[in-house]
Specification:
The complex is a heterodimer of chains A (116) and B (111).
Chain A (H helix, E strand, L loop, with lengths): L4 E3 L2 E4 L5 E6 L6 E7 L5 E8 L2 E5 L6 E5 L5 E5 L8 E8 L11 E2 L3 E5 L1
Parallel strand pairs in A: 2-11
Antiparallel strand pairs in A: 1-3, 3-8, 4-5, 4-9, 5-6, 7-8, 9-10, 9-11
Chain B lengths: L3 E2 L4 E5 L4 E7 L6 E7 L6 E7 L4 E4 L2 E6 L4 E6 L8 E8 L5 E3 L3 E6 L1
Parallel strand pairs in B: 2-11
Antiparallel strand pairs in B: 1-3, 3-8, 4-5, 4-9, 6-7, 7-8, 9-10, 9-11
Classes of the chains: A mainly beta (116), B mainly beta (111).
């Protein structure tokens, strides 16, 4: 158990819809990362938040947005869903100490999104 | 633009032999490299890491080698065990911020 909790584990929805994925980081971790893993693809970095503020942005579509709340949990919002958005979405957390981060990410079990 | 590449999607090795998983990267500014292991229906878990100031890091049966001039990273598992069967992702980071992952190599250790 990594200590990172993601909900829901599975989600099936239709094209054009909007969904919200939720992540609770490990206790004490200030940084949250979102990754997308599509079929036969690696983990594509979407976005990182640190202590409530956006820290880094990757290949995140404009239809997607995220935020980190004061209690440090994070939500990834996916809107106007397309078939190609079907993927496994992972949240990870880490402790950041300036530039001396250990580099270790703790991943949740993922949220599997299926868009029909 | 895939900055971290794992060109072998799969690898099969006999139990007790050495498993060598390879990874190439394009950005010479990466300063930290990691390997993660993933079992089905689970999230990736950290396995071993190496800083760019080193060329080798060892942890039990797992050794990571870094060749900065070739921008190449490898993970050696010896001896390989059936429980090592999993998907292995290599990752690279810039000062611990963005982490770039490869596409993964599925390792099967045959008993």
């Amino acid at each position: 158990d990594s200590g990172v909790t993601q909900t829901p584990k599975h989600l099936i929805t239709a094209t054009g819809q909007r969904v919200t994925l939720r992540c609770s980081p490990r206790s004490g971790d200030l940084s949250v990362y979102w990754y997308q893993q599509s079929l036969d693809q690696g983990l594509q970095f979407l976005i990182q938040y640190y202590n409530g503020e956006e820290r880094a942005k990757g290949n995140i579509l404009e239809r997607f947005s995220a935020q980190q709340f004061p209690d440090l949990h994070s939500e990834l919002n996916l809107s106007s869903l397309e078939l190609g958005d079907s993927a496994l979405y992972f949240c990870a957390s880490s402790v950041l100490a300036g530039a001396e981060d250990t580099g270790e990410l703790f991943f949740g079990e993922g949220s599997r999104l299926t868009v029909l | 633009d895939q900055q971290v590449k794992q060109n072998s999607p799969s690898l099969s090795v006999q139990e007790g032999r050495i498993s060598i998983l390879n990874c190439d990267y394009t950005n010479s500014m990466f300063d930290y490299f990691l390997w993660y292991k993933k079992y089905p229906a689970e999230g990736p878990t950290f396995l071993i890491s190496i800083s760019s100031i080193k060329d080798k890091n060892e942890d039990g049966r797992f050794t990571v080698f870094l060749n900065k001039s070739a921008k190449h990273l490898s993970l050696h598992i010896v001896p390989s065990q059936p429980g090592d069967s999993a998907v292995y992702f290599c990752a690279a980071s810039l000062t611990g911020n963005q982490f770039y992952f490869g596409t993964g190599t599925s390792l099967t250790v045959i008993p």
